[in-house]
Write a structure and sequence with these properties.
58% of the residues lie in helices and 7% in strands. It is mainly alpha-helical and 206 residues long. Strand 2 and strand 3 form a beta hairpin. The protein is globular, with a radius of gyration of 18 Å. The N terminus is likely disordered.
Length: 206
Amino acid sequence: MSESAQTAETTSPRTIAADTRVWDKTPLEKFRAPQTPERKEQDAKSLARVFNLAATVPALKEALDWAAAHDIDIVVDRTSRGVGGYYMNGTGVVALALNAFASDSRLAGVVMHEIRHAWQDNQYLIATAEHRLDHYIFKNALIEADATAHQRLAEQQTRVAQEGELIQRLSASGTDMTQAQKLHDTISKEVAEPKAFLLAQFKNWY
């Protein structure tokens, strides 16, 4: 059973999209084999936070829906250091490090970034070893620019949702939030047009 299906056990089989690659789940099976029931419960609670965020972050919800339809598993790697998460090529497995959970915006961004790598892999776009190193570097830069653009979209949508609630509460208490509201409105308009936002972020990579 995959965490990408809300992490809970269910008797309903997941409907897999026709364009899904055949993933090698052997690394996933080895990863889960030594886990205790307590560890599995802890991870399920951590991952539930991801799905709760999706309720207010449209880009994240879309990514999670795609992941569920394409047999993508999301796990927590408690040994990973130095990165927020990673995607294991050819496996359909997204792993989140503990530091990905530092804040909601970071969590949404990391999940979005790694699911985008899964999407790239499903489209056979992941860079592989080339005879020319410059070709490999160029391809890798493109896929990272793409994943990072999607990461930024999820991060900003998360901030818009949470900061909007904060502004409302402070305004209700009598605090002057005029300038904060103007900035919030500007960012809200930017992320309300995902295609334009993603294109701008992609161009900013270079």
